[in-house]
User: What shape does this take?
Amino acid sequence: MLQGSVIALYINSSSKPQESLVFEQQGVVGDKHYAKNIDRSVLISSLESYAIAIDKDIAIEVGALGENILISFNPCRLNVGSLLHIGDVVLEITQQGTLCQHLSAIDKRLPKLLKNDRGIFAKVIKEGKIKVGDKIEVSKVQN
Assistant: This one.
């Protein structure tokens, strides 16, 4: 089922947006979290997360949540085990996003505000490349 599209892509070692990223079993090539924890190797956030912050007058730049993929719909409502088909890549949702300390540095209200809406973690099931503008389809894991 079609859900949305990729708005922006980031490598966590750089805050500069990327046009495309390569995804391998160990995570995002070039990312500081590459090959550290496969179940948390990809962070996906949405425009809605930023809208929640901006609505509370928190000045936050896109990319500041530490995401690798910024998408057009809120992935936090998807279940663990759901599959995201994006470009050549298939990602499996492994857990809801956690809040890290750097969010407090942006604004002390941010961790509590985005507790359930920062994003999701995923692991790479099928390697490949994702580009800005790629469509996203969501399906359930086949048992």
User: Anything to note?
Assistant: The chain is about 15% helix and 40% strand. The chain has one domain: 2-139. The domain at 2-139 is CATH 2.40.33.20 (M1 Pyruvate Kinase; Domain 3).
